[in-house]
Every structure is written in structure tokens, then in C-alpha cells.
């Protein structure tokens, strides 16, 4: 006879409504958290200058942690906060990886600790000196003895004061573990901590590190010291890169911890020119990529770690206008301005999480407005781009072109919807061109093959590649608190 099974005992455990992933927490709201942004550019492009101009809408300046040359490139019209160096007029620069991590934690826990507004402090009335002492220590709780030492009062006099502040819900009582000499188990003592509300703010809404090259030097110095070698080249680089990876992860985790306090995180990276090849015809072209040490797969992996971590990877490039030469004069280039590239092109591997235009003037005000607007481009710009693709598509497949027109009209001028149509239409046109070439039996490989019976007439050179961004950048033409 089979034993009876209690079905209730087999039922899955139901998570309480207060659980982190409970059904009550399901929603369709957008992620409004702060961004992790990398700003990449060639030397002299103005990356440090750009970061130094970042000021939140309520006038809180960015905090810059320099790992290389200090604040030599900052804007003369702005005053970003930083750690002062030992000599007057210098910036403190971490000399080891441990110092770098310590500086980031000091910013997060002390420099950028939550601060109450004046009217919140005024709620304490005559007990304001006591609450100010606790605010300065926040988020560290203080025992009555520690508060007495900081306010120059006796513990007996503090008892009614602490009771009054607790009744006003300005402080609360907590347990504070304190180490006991000769014992491994700490002893819990009664302590008090300030209770912040939504009016409290951090002194800085933005934090920047300048730059990845400096961080890389500190990480490599730590690895070579541990491995007992003079440089990364003294051992197989692949093996040492695996040793360096945990340090990179530690550094990025500290940036994530700062971002978790509702702070936008910025990371400057130098750019270098790299050679790439077109996947269709194999033509070589120059592009920009992050400047990092190493070669081959290890170099690609190092760049991927940073690129995958960031929400946004923006490239700051210098635009140069070139005047055609003549028989008597050479072609001349002149500086035309700086621009910010936010999406992938043949020139660079940029990316963006928020919807912003593909290119922007390289100023913080323009980028902040683009973040707040949340649209990839103006309606007129998107419609012009879509119409150009529809003209191309109509020469290949009229049915697909008519479908694209219907999708464009259905957007009713909404920039976000038009951006989706534009993105899809780019893929449709590319696939249609490939299919047309396949049906005609014409491919790049066929064109390259020589016909034995053909004449020896030299073949005309191919026209220049039309892929965006194949030229050198200097020759290119033209939700949380922010």
C-alpha cells in the first residue's frame, strides 16, 4: 500500500510581501538611477576641462579624484572639489592602489555623507549643538559618552536632550558593537544616530576619476610587486592580466558603491588610434579606442571590462575643417570645434543608455539637456534620415518601402517611436542590399576574381569607402539629480 503524501508539505515556500523580489514590487516604471559614464578622447581634447564644468542643477560641483596630473586641465571658470596635496596649490594624487581605494571610500563615507538643510537642524531648537555633533558623525552611531565628549556636556545632562531629540524623530536608538580587550566577541552598547529624511542632500551629485591610465599604472605596480617582477613584460602578459583583473573589479566595485549613493560616476580614459578592417571589403581604416597596455586578446579583454561596466561611453573629439589646396598652396586644416559622439560609428565604439542624439556639442549643458529630454534627435532630423533610407529601399523592394512609409506615418511625429523605425529601417536596407547582391550573383569575392579571357586593361580603382567615420577625427566633418 502506497504511503500518503502531504501535498502541503511539497508546496513551495511563499516569500513574504516585504521580500526583495516579492510580487508586490513588480512594476513597469523606468530605471531612473544615476549613470556610469566614460569620457574617452585623445590627449588635449579637453576631457578634464569637460568634467570640471559639471555642476548639478542645484549648483553642487563635481568632485574630481585625480590619479595622474592633478587639476591642470580644469576650466578657469569652475571650481571642482578635490583632495588637496601636501604643497599649497597642488592636488593629492594616490601613489598606490590601496591609497586609491582609500580615497574613494573616504569620499563616499565622509566627504559626501548626507547633510541636512538648515531648517532640519532648527527643529532641534536649543539642542542644536547636540544634533550637529551627531550629524557630523553620521552615519556612525555615537554612544552617550561619545556625544558628551564632543559637546562638552555630562552624560547626565544629555539624557533629557537625547530623549527630546528622539521624541522629535531626529535621532533613533541603535546597538553599537564595541571591541572588548581580550575577547573576540564585541559588546553591544546603546548608541544614537541621526535619522535623515528626503530633505538631506550630499555635497556632490557627481564624482569623477581622471584617468584610467593612472589607475592602470597603480594596478600594474600592485601586480608586479606581488609577483616579484619589475614589469608586466617580465612574465607572460596573459597570466599577469588575470592577476590584474580582480583589482580592476575592485576598483569598479568601489565606483558602483559611490553610484549606489545616488551619485553620477565619471571615468576619463585616453584614446589611441587603432587600425580596423571593413567586414565587407576588407579595407583598412582608422578608428579611436581606449588606450590601454597589452596586445591581442588581453588588450581586447581589458577594454571590454570597462566598456561593459559603463552605462555610457562617450568620445570627445576635435573637429577640423580642411580647406582644399591648389597648385600654389597646400591644403590647410583649421580647428572648428569639439563634439561628443554618443553612439557607435566606424570612428569609435561609443554607446549610450539614455536616448540622446548621435552627436552633441561637447559641453555639459548640452549633454544634461539631452539626458533630460530623453530623445535621440529632433523630429525633423529623424524624418529626414528615414526618408533617405526609404528612397534607397524603394529602388530594391517597393513593398518594403511602402511598409516603412506606413510605420513612419504611424509614429505621428513621436521622436522616440521614429527612432525605433529608423533603427529597424537601417537593418532592413542593409539586408535588402545583401539579398539583392546574392540574387544577382555579384559579390565582393566575385569582383576580385580575374577572368582568364579578359583583356589586360587595368581595372579602375574602387571608390572610397562610404562607411561613416573612416577618416581621422581631426579630418572629420561635421533622471536622478543632474
- Number of distinct beta strands: 11
Query: DSSP helix count?
Result: 15
Q: What form results from the Cα inertia axes?
A: globular
Strand proportion, as a percent range, falls in 15-25%
Alpha-carbon Rg, integer: 30 Å
Q: What is the total number of structural domains?
A: 3
CATH class descriptor of the largest domain: Alpha Beta
**Poorly predicted ranges:** 1-5, 7-11, 454-478
Q: Average pLDDT across residues?
A: 82
Could you describe the 3D structure shown?
The structure is a single chain. This protein is α/β, with parallel strands linked by helices. It folds into three domains: 36-109 and 209-373, Rossmann fold, CATH 3.40.50; 118-194, Arc Repressor Mutant, subunit A, CATH 1.10.10; 375-441. It has helices at 7-10, 47-52, 97-111, 118-122, 128-137, 144-151, 155-167, 212-227, 237-259, 296-309, 364-373, 379-394, 398-410, 415-440, 444-448; strands at 36-41, 63-66, 142-143, 171-178, 187-194, 206-210, 264-277, 284-290, 312-323, 332-341, 359-361. A hairpin with an 8-residue loop joins strand 4 and strand 5 (187-194). The protein is globular. It starts with 6 loop residues before the first helix and ends in a 34-residue tail after the last helix. Residues 1-5, 7-11 and 454-478 have low confidence and may be disordered.
